[in-house]
Every structure is written in C-alpha cells, then in structure tokens.
Amino acid sequence: MKRNLAPVRALVRELIPLVGSFAPNGSSALVATARKGLGFTVARTSAGLFTITFTDTQADLVSFEHSLQHVTARDVYTQMGTLVNTTTPVVQIRVMDISGAAVDDLTADANTRIHFTAWMRNSAAKPTYGA
Predict the structure, then answer these.
(1) Is the residue at 32 inside a domain?
(2) Euclidean distance between CA atoms 76 and 104, whole angstroms
C-alpha cells in the first residue's frame, strides 16, 4: 500500500483499517459524490448487489465488517457475498429482504447508507499468521 499511514497496534504486522460507506440509489447507478472514504470504488452490480473493489495493490483482505443504516425500520440486512482476494481484493455486498429471502434495492435517501471496515494487510510484509 502506497500511503503515509499511522500505525495500528495489532498482533499482525502491517494491519491497515480501510473504512468507507456509500449510499444506495434504488435501481440506478450509485452517485460517486455520495461515497465516503478512500482506497476503493463501488458499483451497483444488479438489484441489491454492490461490488467494492479496493484500489491499492499488495493488499491482503484479513477481515471485513459491514452494516446497514436505514431511514426507517425495515426487515433488511447486509450480507457479504463473493470475495476475490487477489492483489486488488474485490468484495460483494448483498442487501437482503428477510420476508422474501431475496436481494432488495434500497430507495435513495440521505439517511440510507452501507458502511464497512476492511482490515487489510500489506501482502509485501512477511505473514504473521498462527499461534
């Protein structure tokens, strides 16, 4: 990763949190200015499915947490889909409707966002996995 970063105190060397969020836009493409955070791009792939591509090379995705902020109470949740952990990791997030167990498009709203934290490790650093 090619950024001037503050160190994180962790048992794994070169651990870097990448935090971001984006605003779903119903059945339309995402609005680029509604994205918050650096080091990633995001696109609506299909109904209720979003693809996050991390832009830094030599990044190994260690962990990924996500949550949904919605303006009203609804029976929907986010679910991590496909993960491609290569030199530029790609993650898919699904928005699931509990009642139908199917993906769901979220209406565009100023208070509807999907938040995430990706914990990345610089893959150029020597691994420190195990006991």
Answers:
(1) yes
(2) 8
- Could you tell me if residue 55 is inside a domain? yes
Tens digits of per-residue pLDDT, 18-37? 999 999 998 888 888 889 99
* Structural domain includes residue 106: yes
Taking the C-alpha atoms of residue 13 and residue 98, their distance in angstroms, rounded to an integer, is: 39
- 60: β partners: 121
> What's the CA gap between 49 and 29, in Å, rounded?
11
* Whole-number pLDDT of residue 130: 58
- What pTM was computed for the model? 0.83
Asked if residue 125 lies in contact with residue 13, where contact means CB atoms within 8 angstroms, the answer is yes
Closest residue by Cα to residue 27 from 109, 124, 107: 107
Domain that holds residue 69: 16-122
**Does a structural domain hold residue 5?**
no
Tally of structural domains, the chain: 1
